[in-house]
Amino acid sequence: MTSYDITTSPNIISEPLNQLHLSSENQEKINHILDEFKYLNVLSQYGLHTTHKLLFFGDSGCGKTATAKAVAKELDKKIITLDLSEFVSSRLGETAKNVNTIFKKAAKENAVLFLDEFDSVGKLRDYDTKDSGEMKRLVNTLIQLIDYLPNNVLLICATNHMHAIDKALLRRFETTMEFIVPNDKELDVYYCSLLERFPEKFHNIQKKYAISYAEAKDLVFNQVKKQIINQEKAKEKLTHEQLNN
User: Fold this and answer.
1) Cβ 174 vs Cβ 51: under 8 Å
2) Who's near 69: CB < 8 A, 6+ residues apart?
3) Residue-wise over 191-217: b if at least 16 C-beta within 10 A, else e?
4) Residue 18: phi, psi to the nearest 5?
5) 113: which of 169, 217, 231, 241 lies 20 to 30 Å off by Cα?
6) Integer Cα distance of 200 and 205 in angstroms
7) Comparing 203 with 19, which gets the higher pLDDT?
8) Residue 158: HSE in the Cβ half-sphere, 13 Å Cα cutoff
9) DSSP assignment, residue 174?
């Protein structure tokens, strides 16, 4: 299965939206978009379109992908995920054709289309390079696809390098959301939320700060796993000693 075939149903194992640690600004924007999709038919009666072209940008591991999945789950939609960094190849003509196919698939399935590593096709380019013509055509194709995206399809693009994206592409997005490394207070709240699922005896961990949510999650789970394994090893050792006495 190629990277652009991946389709995930709404019941994907992911964190519910209300359990994500979003900034108040991002939470407000997400809630507004969910409301618009809920009342899509009513809005259309007044000639109004939903806000359905979003750009998530910011630090890696701070919730862009998790938010996209949670929104799809909240809307009870399938999510089609495309990692553009793996997708874009030297055969750019074929890439443009396949991107068109993905957009059609999203429209047909009334899905959320999540394009990760969006800067892979949106980068400002030196158009004197040998691939410049094909890349320019690919970017133009993408602009047209975004412009004519059906109102029922939610497009979410994500990047860690917003500054590298062509301004013509940036103008296509109706809403942008920044995801940044959490501060100490936000991380403390997150650490508590991760640990509360485990017995209190496993809560003694070494915390780190100035890291992403993804890094904090790995940090907690690795330390808890180590404590659990050490506990089991101690039990096995005690049992072995008792049998030998």
Assistant:
1) yes
2) 8, 12, 14, 15, 79, 114
3) beebbeeeeeebbebeeeeebbbebbb
4) -75, -5
5) 217
6) 11
7) 203
8) 22
9) S
